[in-house]
Sequence to fold (436 residues):
Amino acid sequence: MASLFEADAPRPLADRLRPNVLTEVVGQDHLLGPEAPLGRMLARQRVASILLWGPPGCGKTTIARLLADGTDMEFEPLSAVFSGVADLRKVFEKAKERRQMGRGTLLFIDEIHRFNRAQQDGFLPYVEDGTVVLVGATTENPSFELNAALLSRCQVLVLRRLDDTALDLLLTRAEEIEGRALPLTPDGREALKAMADGDGRYLLNLTEEIFLLPSEPLLDGAGLVKTVQHRAPVYDKNREEHYNLISALHKSLRGSDADAALYWLSRMLAGGEDAGYIMRRLTRFASEDIGMADPAALPQALACWDAYERIGSPEGDLMLAQCVIYLATAPKSNAAYKAAGAAKRAAKTTGSLAPPAHILNAPTNLMKDLGYGKGYAYDHDAPDGFSGADYFPEEMRREQFYRPVERGFEREIQKRLAYWDKLRRHRVAGGPDGDG
Fold:
């Protein structure tokens, strides 16, 4: 077995610490253990075509290279950013020649989601006939970025961002190969891991920079932030992380967890998300998930939106936070949302039913002769300001689309609806009116 650490100082630290066997890869035990997918492949000495989906710096390229080494396959790396059809053809031709000599080829394509649909289709014949074993790496959700045909021929394996234990192990290995401890206090060490944000390669690049500093004084968290360049959180406003975080914000609000909602709001703002997009979602939430349980939620969201546009960032971020707190702590009901959907479905299925004649205006004699407006009961003239008339089409039975919940203001609405329903039933039946 090759040594884990090699004393080739001019090479970058991340390269010198690159694992030589799969058991040295950190943070991915769910894929590499004896009973895990990649562990079983190695035990059988047979690798299937796979897609490695995970965040930057979690070991995708290293795993692909070690899979080839562990199964005695030729490792052919390509990047979808720099490679095209001509490069693929060369690889496929070489792979055919090796196959005739009894040796397989592992084709590793980094950023595979950057190949267009036609290029992805071009892999299929060579994957199907075994000319190459395809290992693709992507930071994007394969369901959105890759052809269904390619997905059906590959097993998707999800890699995790490196946790504190994995990052600690990388720091320990770095200190061993350098022969000295990092000039950091325990607080500084924690800050370094936080800066890495689960990215092992970025952690080691930062570590290499820190090793160039004097051994004294030891840096704490604040000193480290001032000394090294801190990158922005990984966040792409046009891709999956964008939808993941807004979903987390929405569900935290729905779950009345103001603290979690504030956290996800802050994550989105730190990533540069458009505040207008956030406010659109908050305004939608006010109607969809609160509705009539707190009728003030919608004007509150609109007021916060207006205030933010007047003030701007960063001061206006407080308006967003206030809106989030209000919506998270408001009583919740999706009764209005469900009622609108049910009414829409009924409108589609009932076609072009006309309103009942008694509620139609009759501006001409002909319309009066046809019965327009006949029998209309003016509600203000009725006892309690309620006639109990049926306003649905005559050919349609009465439906209850809106069913308020026993929360917030809808509790009061529920009492009103129950009272009107009681009056309606009594007046239709010709019985006595209910109590006011």
